[in-house]
Amino acid sequence: MHTPEQRAAYIDTIRNFPEAFADLVSELTDAQLMARSLDGEWTIAQNVHHVADSHMNSYVRLKLILTEDRPALKGYDQEAWAKLVDGDKPNVDVSLNLLRSLHTRWVAVYESLTDEQWQRVGIHSEIGEVTPDDLVKIYAEHCDAHIDQVTRTLAAQ
Questions:
Q1: Strand, helix or coil for residue 18
Q2: How far apart are CA 1 and CA 149, in angstroms?
Q3: 84 or 7: which carries more pLDDT confidence?
Q4: What's the pTM?
């Protein structure tokens, strides 16, 4: 279980991520967004669209955990999603706008949780039991990981 201070730091990362991510990618050209600069890694555009997909899934999982008794939380094939038409195009504005709105709601839910709610449990199909306490850390780290990945991709261009 995380301390209130740790949770606040994770929530701040989630709160600040959309603007930091947008600052990193919003001025890039289509060529930069679609370049395959690092072997085996997604394009910058795919990263942006993936983060929107992933964070939507996590938000829904959080709400399921808070409103159902030990709900099933389904995993998904991230690689397959990244290849769909909405995940493999250079227009990242829609995903960036989605992240701004989603993160506003996500933070509001996290900031409202009681000590008891932080410990509620869902059953993820790939990792087993997961709590809101787990999710806030996982997704704060996910934010940082994708800023790092995009930064490395830009450096390789």
A1: helix
A2: 28
A3: 7
A4: 0.94
